[in-house]
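Async update (no meeting this week)

Hi team, since we skipped the sync, here's where things stand on the single-chain job. The sequence we agreed to prioritize is pasted below, unchanged from the tracker. I ran it this morning and attached the output directly underneath so nobody has to dig for it. Comments welcome in thread, and please keep replies under the output.
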Amino acid sequence: MALAGCATASSIPPARHALAPSAPAPIPARPPVAVAAAQQTVIDPHGLIRPELMQRARAALDTHGHRIALRDRLYVVDFQKFSGTDRLYEVDLHGGWVTAYRTTHGRGSDPAHSGFAERFSNQPDSHMSSLGSYVTAGPSWGPQQGPNVLLDGLEYSNDLARQRAIIVHGADYADPAFLAREGKLGRSYGCFSCSHIDLTALRERMGEGRLLFAMN
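Output:
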């Protein structure tokens, strides 16, 4: 079967089933907000992620808990946003901080190349992005795309991700130079392509057993 993703069949391994001081110095008073933050982590304190998207991602973390081995970080993709803006978010669930990156969508999702994804599919050869929950399946390397992160789809909307070779990988059409020249990112065959420099950080940090949640 021809693959609709950005890698080749041979580059995608099979899925894995998954003495206390006598006079202590006085402690300076802290404002109530700081005390509250110390008691309960505030996720995304700067509001980078749409609240509905964040809520859905955290619900997915519970729904697919039996497949999500690691809950220190999760990854969220907002396909409502323009491709030239940050829309792939790494969420630190312990510290609450969010780091934002750019990522592409599939050419079938944006046939006019407007920079906005409009259609989504799980079908092979559709060249569209797929929505829903994925679990990262570890760093890999393929002859076509080089270093990457494997993904397994967890829902009917993306459960053919491994068959379609949907991965996270670096691409020239996602690099800053392409964005500066074209005003938007290029399009993948459904993969979450990112800049080569961003992939270096993401590949190690995504690892194996973390949630990636994509929503429009």
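Quick observations from my side:
Strands lie at 73-78, 88-92, 98-101, 132-142, 146-153, 167-170, 192-194, 208-215.
The chain is about 20% helix and 25% strand.
Reply here if anything looks off.
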